[in-house]
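Input structure tokens:
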């Protein structure tokens, strides 16, 4: 099984800032601690993911992402398992875990679950990376769907599960998108091989799409006014 040096989350981190990508790999102890709010968000995402699995009940869950999980996924596919949760794939030194992989009469369909009520460009970017890795690893997908919460419906409501979620199909892959991903990955791998972190001036990338978790160390020499200006970008 191929080894890996990037994942979906580090790819998104690298798109946001190469310095953040580098520090995350080589100086992880400099990361700011997760806030209570972020921890709660992760827990909510996990809960919604588990509920969404029941849109396609009876699947087999692959354990924690890694080479063993990728091999297990490949074995389940070969054995004809029609529904796999947390299906893991590696291609071009990138590992991804897909929430739900389903085989029906038309072929394999991928479903990635988001707990938020809206789909951002970042979600589409990470879905495109997932498709790139899955198809690159040798599994042809019939379609790729993002599933997200319909916030008009409460999770506790006694309504059909499918009414709690909205489905959006990803646009078909094209050569331009795929080569764009390959270029991004190549640049990120080169950054990770450098002897020191790239020089990046703090700016709007520090807060978008996500507040960077290296701000304490990276903003150390900014004036209070500059910090406030950057923080306000997230409002
Ligand atoms: S704080 Fe800003 S410049 Fe520093 S690593 Fe994070 S995103 Fe990059």
């Amino acid at each position: 099984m191929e080894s890996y040096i990037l994942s979906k989350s580090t790819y998104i981190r690298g798109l946001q800032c190469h310095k953040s990508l580098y520090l995350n790999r080589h100086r992880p102890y400099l990361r700011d601690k997760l806030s209570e709010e972020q921890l709660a968000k992760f827990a909510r995402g996990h809960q919604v993911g588990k509920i969404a699995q029941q849109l396609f009940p009876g699947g087999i869950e692959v354990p924690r992402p890694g080479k063993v999980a990728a091999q297990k996924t490949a074995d389940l596919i070969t054995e004809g398992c029609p529904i796999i949760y947390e299906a893991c794939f590696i291609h071009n030194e990138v590992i991804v875990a897909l929430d739900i992989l389903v085989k029906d009469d038309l072929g394999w369909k991928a479903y990635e679950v988001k707990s938020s009520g809206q789909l951002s460009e970042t979600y589409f970017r990470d879905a495109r990376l997932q498709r790139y890795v899955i198809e690159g690893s040798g599994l042809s997908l019939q379609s790729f769907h993002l599933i997200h919460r319909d916030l008009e419906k409460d999770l506790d409501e006694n309504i059909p599960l499918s009414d709690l979620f909205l489905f959006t199909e990803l646009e078909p892959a094209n050569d331009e998108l795929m080569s764009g991903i390959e270029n991004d990955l190549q640049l990120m791998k080169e950054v990770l091989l450098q002897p020191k972190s790239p020089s990046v001036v703090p700016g709007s990338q520090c807060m978008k799409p996500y507040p960077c978790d290296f701000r304490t160390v990276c903003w150390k020499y900014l004036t209070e006014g500059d910090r406030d200006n950057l923080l306000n970008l997230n409002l």
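The chain has a mean pLDDT of 94. The pocket of iron/sulfur cluster is lined by residues 17, 19-20, 23, 200, 202, 205-206, 212, 214-215, 218 (CB under 6 Å).
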